[in-house]
Specification:
Alpha-Beta Plaits; 2 domains; 13% strand; disordered N terminus; alpha+beta
Amino acid sequence: MKLLAFTFSDIFKNSFLESWDNQNITMSSVLLCLLFTTLIALYIFFVYRLVTRKVFYSRNFNVSLVGISLITAAIILTIQSNIVISLGMVGALSIVRFRTAVKNPMDLMFLFWGLGVGIICGSGHPMYAVCLSLILTVVILLLDWLPVAKASMILVVNATDFQAEKAIMDVVCQHCRYAQVKARNMTASSLALTVELRVADAQLMVEVQKLPCVSTVSLVTHSGETTL
C-alpha cells in the first residue's frame, strides 16, 4: 500500500509540474505580447495627460505607467513558463516595499490600470485589456464632465480693529449664501479673520476693502473636497 501511495504521489507531482513546463512561449509570442502592452500603455499615457488637471503635471509618473505595464507583462510571461520560477518570483517580490506615497486617488487608479493591463496582456488576453481601457476611458470622461458644486474659497482679512468681525461678516453675507469663520487671530489692536465661503466673483474683496478698519484682503482657492 505504501508503494502504491508513493507511486501515485510521484505521478501526480510529475504531471502537475509537466503541465507548467510544457508552456510553449516563443520569442515571437513574447515580442507580440510586449508590443500590444506598449500600445495600450501609450494609450494610458495620453489619457492620463488629457484627464489630469494638476498644476504640477508629473511627466515622470506618466512615463512610469508605461514602464510598469511592460515590466508586469514580462513578469507574467516568466511566471507562465515554469511553476518553480513563479514561486521564486512571488517570494522575491513579496520582500519589495515601496516608500513613495501616491497622494492623488486618480494617480492610484492609473497605477492599477497599468498593472492590470500588464497582467492581462502577459496572460495572453490583449483584447480584454483593450476592452478594459476603452470602457474605463468612457467612464472616466463621463464622471469627469458631471457637474459638481463650486469649490469653496478662503477669505483672509486683516483689520486694524479687533472688533471689526461683525462689519466684515455683514459685507460677506451680502455677497455669499455660504460663509463660515474658520479662524480668528486677535491682538489688542488688530484682527486676522479667515472665512470659508462660496463667491461668484471678486467684487466681495472690493467691498470688504472699503471698510475703514480693513488693511489687507486675500482670496485664495480652497484645496479640499467640494461638497454639494
